[in-house]
Description:
mainly alpha, Hypothetical protein af1432, 72% helix
Amino acid sequence: MSRLKELRKVVGDKLRESITDGEKLESAYAHLYGVSLAATVIAEKRGEDSELASMAAMLHDIAAYVSGTYDDHAHRGADMAREILLRNALGTPKEIDRICSAIYHHDDKLLKDEPLDEVLKDADVMHHTFNDLAKPIKEKELARYRALRQEFGLPVQE
């Protein structure tokens, strides 16, 4: 079994034991899988490691889903991700550090970090904004949204 497939199983188990509301569980799956797919595409386009990007995306909101709160979820999520990845032997120490860095920084949408961190931030923004084009775009995500549209050759909307 691939590392990503194994990680998806572990994440699925965690979600099912933490979220009892069917709609919230469905929403969590949709977001994690959506960001994971976006991260794969963005990483491929930018020459980054798409497997690590996808793995980071599958874990990026795990702390929020497990605890039920988004308070400091990126930082808490990096710690949870490290524990999950180590317990399941799903990466080398360097790979785990890169994944956890991306998760740790993914909520800092106004700052620029390491390339893999940027892939996760942009994948998260891509899912937030393209998943429902009728929803208003958060101010902190607007610049990234516009840059993503330009990067992918889409008309830049005002």
